[in-house]
């Protein structure tokens, strides 16, 4: 092992010869490995047999309108902790921060590293797929890929969460898309378009939440109801 991970183990965690570490690939495989040798630039590990972590019977993909500076990192960390399978940064009518393709490609590398660091700290075996910026129209066209699309909105009329999740197929590959808007919510036109495309409106209560809080609240509700 070399590079960032080797430096972290040797210089931050200060592992020594004979110590045991857990290695994982972010796709459900992990193994114990013993440190056999180390230097300032690399480690030599002796790996044990790989183990497969059972996947969740459902996959939640988070569509989040790109928030203000610094918040996307917090959202990626929280979403990783709460077990999402994919993160779709959205370009909506009220999105303030805009990215060029090249700029967001660099941003994606940083966000992926945030996800990796979170997974290491929390012992999570699966990393979410972080996708390129998705325009609203393209998102609407992807709704048929999901068994259920939920949109957390301030304005109603809302549907009960349990009712919105009812009649899901019994399958090991159920896909749910959860949409959380920017500060000020999705525009009325976007909400109408989403509903016409099959989304179900759900509420996070009478208070207006910041987008990073809304992500944690809505994913927590989903985890509670689906588990």
Structure description:
This protein is of the alpha/beta class and 227 residues long. It folds into 2 domains: 3-52, Beta Barrel (Ribosomal Protein L25, Chain P); 58-226, Alpha/beta knot (3-Layer(aba) Sandwich), CATH 3.40.1280. It contains 7 helices and 11 strands. Strands 5, 6, 7, 8, 9, 10 and 11 form a 7-stranded parallel sheet that branches. Strands 1, 2, 3 and 4 form a 4-stranded antiparallel sheet that branches. Strand 2 and strand 3 form a beta hairpin. The chain is elongated and about 60 Å long. It starts with a helix and ends with a helix. The mean pLDDT is 90.
Can you tag this structure with a few keywords?
227 residues; alpha/beta; Ribosomal Protein L25, Chain P; Alpha/beta knot; 4-stranded antiparallel beta sheet; elongated
CATH third-tier fold name of the largest domain: Alpha/beta knot
CATH architecture of the largest domain: 3-Layer(aba) Sandwich
Mean pLDDT: 90
Shape label: elongated
Q: Give the strand content.
A: 15-25%
Q: How much helical structure, as a percent, in the residues? A: 25-40%
**By CATH's scheme, which homologous superfamily of the largest domain applies?**
SPOUT methyltransferase, trefoil knot domain
How does the SSE layout of this entry go?
Elements: H1 3-12, E1 20-24, E2 29-38, E3 43-47, E4 51-52, E5 58-65, H2 71-81, E6 86-91, H3 101-122, E7 129-130, E8 134-135, H4 136-141, E9 148-152, H5 161-164, E10 174-180, H6 188-196, E11 200-202, H7 211-226
Parallel strand pairs: 5-6, 5-10, 6-7, 6-8, 9-10, 9-11
Antiparallel strand pairs: 1-2, 2-3, 2-4
